[in-house]
C-alpha cells in the first residue's frame, strides 16, 4: 500500500481524504507539480519549486512550507514508497473555509497533498515508434502559464484526440501552435533549426522544455524561441513533444499526414540520447 501525504500527515493511500469544502475540490482553486525521480533521486527539484512559487504568487495562494521542507517531504515519500523511477505529485489548494464562496480576500491556510506515481519512462525503442497527433483549436483560458489543476479544457481536448484514434493533440490559437494538451512542442524547421514557442501566457513553462533547450544549445544546434505557424508546423522536418512523464517523444503523423518520412528523426534521436545521458549523470 502506498503512503501519501495529507496536510502534515503520512497515511495509507486508501485512508487519505480531503473535505468536500476544500477549494481544490469545489473550484479547482489549486496548483500542482509533477516532479521526476530517477534511480530514487529527484531531478531538477529547484526548477520545479521555482515554478511552484510562481504559481503560488500568481494565484495568491498562501503556503508557508519552505523549499527545504518540500525537499524533506519528497525524500520521505520516495523512501516510504521505495520509489526508483517515477514521479512525485504535489498539489496545493487555497484551502478550506467550510463554505462555498468565490471571495479570496481573506488569507486561508492552504491544503497540501503529495504522493508518488509510477508512470513508466519509455525506452528508445518504444519512443521511436512515435506519436500520432491531431490539431485542435486551443479552447483553454489565457493563463496557461499557471500549472493549475483546472484541467478540464486539457482533458476534453485530449479526449477529442483519443476519439479520433490519435495519441495526442497539438493546440492552435490564432493560426499558431501553443503546445500539446499535456506537453510542450518543438519542431525542426526546413533550415534544420530547432524552434519552440516562447514562454508566455499561452503555454506552460515546461521544465523538460527548458532542459531540452539547454541540451540542444550545448550540442551546437540553433534553437529559436519563436511563434510557429500552422503552415511551418506541417512543413517541419521533425516534431517533438516534451514533458516530465513523456521526456521527449517524436510526433510522426498529424491529422493522418506523415511528417517528413513518417519516422522518428535524427534530431530527436540525438536529443533523446542527451536527455538519457543527463539523467545518468545527474546527482
Ligand atoms: C499543458 C502542459 N504543457 C507542458 C507540460 C510539460 O511540463 P513539464 O516539462 O514541466 O512536465 C505539461 C506537463 O504536464 C502540461 O500539462
Question: What distinguishing features does this structure have?
Answer:
283 residues, alpha+beta, nine-stranded mixed beta sheet, six-stranded antiparallel beta sheet, 8 helices, 15 strands, 28% strand, binds pyridoxal-5'-phosphate
- The number of helices is 8
Which strand-content bin applies to the residues? 25-35%
Assign the structural class, choosing from mainly alpha, mainly beta, alpha/beta, alpha+beta, or little secondary structure: alpha+beta
The gyration radius over C-alpha positions equals 19 Å
- Cα distance spanning the termini: 28 Å
Q: What pattern of helices and strands is seen along the backbone?
A: EEHEEHHEEHEHEEEEHEHEEEH
Provide an overview of this structure.
- By secondary structure, the chain is α+β, with helices and mostly antiparallel strands.
- It contains eight helices and 15 strands.
- It has helices at residues 23-27, 45-59, 67-80, 124-127, 152-163, 207-218, 230-234, 266-281; strands spanning 3-6, 9-12, 30-38, 41-42, 86-93, 111-117, 131-137, 168-173, 176-180, 184-188, 194-196, 223-225, 238-243, 247-254, 257-258.
- The strands form two sheets. Strands 7, 8, 9, 10, 11, 12, 13, 14 and 15 form a nine-stranded mixed beta sheet that branches. Strands 2-1-6-5-3-4 form a six-stranded antiparallel beta sheet.
- Strand 11 (194-196), helix 6 (207-218) and strand 12 form a beta-alpha-beta unit.
Brief account:
Helix content is 29%, strand content 28%.
Reconstruct the topology from this structure.
Blueprint: E1 3-6, E2 9-12, H1 23-27, E3 30-38, E4 41-42, H2 45-59, H3 67-80, E5 86-93, E6 111-117, H4 124-127, E7 131-137, H5 152-163, E8 168-173, E9 176-180, E10 184-188, E11 194-196, H6 207-218, E12 223-225, H7 230-234, E13 238-243, E14 247-254, E15 257-258, H8 266-281
Parallel strand pairs: 7-8, 7-14, 11-12
Antiparallel strand pairs: 1-2, 1-6, 3-4, 3-5, 5-6, 8-9, 10-11, 10-13, 13-14, 14-15
The structure holds pyridoxal-5'-phosphate.
Amino acid at each position: 500500500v502506498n503512503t501519501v501525504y495529507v496536510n502534515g500527515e503520512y497515511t495509507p493511500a486508501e485512508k487519505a481524504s480531503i473535505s468536500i469544502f476544500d477549494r481544490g475540490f469545489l473550484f479547482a482553486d489549486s496548483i500542482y507539480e509533477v516532479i521526476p525521480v530517477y534511480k530514487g533521486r529527484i531531478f531538477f527539484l529547484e526548477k520545479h519549486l521555482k515554478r511552484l512559487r510562481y504559481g503560488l504568487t500568481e494565484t495568491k495562494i498562501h503556503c508557508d512550507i519552505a523549499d527545504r521542507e518540500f525537499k524533506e517531504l519528497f525524500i520521505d515519500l520516495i523512501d516510504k514508497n521505495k520509489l526508483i523511477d517515477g514521479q512525485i505529485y504535489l498539489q496545493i489548494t487555497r484551502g478550506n473555509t467550510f463554505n462555498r464562496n468565490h471571495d479570496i480576500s481573506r488569507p486561508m491556510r492552504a491544503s497540501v497533498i503529495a504522493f508518488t506515481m509510477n508512470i513508466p519512462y519509455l525506452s528508445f525503442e518504444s519512443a521511436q515508434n512515435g506519436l500520432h497527433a491531431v490539431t485542435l483549436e486551443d479552447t483553454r483560458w489565457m493563463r496557461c502559464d499557471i500549472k493549475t489543476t483546472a484541467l478540464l479544457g486539457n482533458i476534453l481536448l485530449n479526449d477529442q484526440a483519443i476519439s479520433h484514434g490519435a495519441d495526442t493533440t497539438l493546440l492552435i490559437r490564432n493560426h499558431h501552435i501553443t503546445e500539446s494538451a499535456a506537453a510542450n512542442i518543438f519542431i525542426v524547421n526546413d533550415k534544420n533549426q530547432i524552434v519552440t514557442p516562447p514562454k508566455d501566457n499561452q503555454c506552460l513553462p515546461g521544465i523538460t522544455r527548458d532542459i531540452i533547450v539547454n541540451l540542444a544549445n550545448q550540442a551546437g544546434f540553433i534553437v529559436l524561441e519563436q511563434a510557429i505557424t500552422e503552415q511551418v508546423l506541417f512543413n517541419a522536418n521533425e516534431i517533438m513533444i516534451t514533458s516530465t512523464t513523456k521526456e521527449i517523444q517524436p510526433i510522426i503523423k498529424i491529422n493522418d499526414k506523415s511528417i517528413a518520412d513518417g519516422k522518428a528523426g535524427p534530431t530527436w534521436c540525438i536529443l533523446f540520447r542527451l536527455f538519457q545521458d543527463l539523467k545518468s549523470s545527474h546527482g
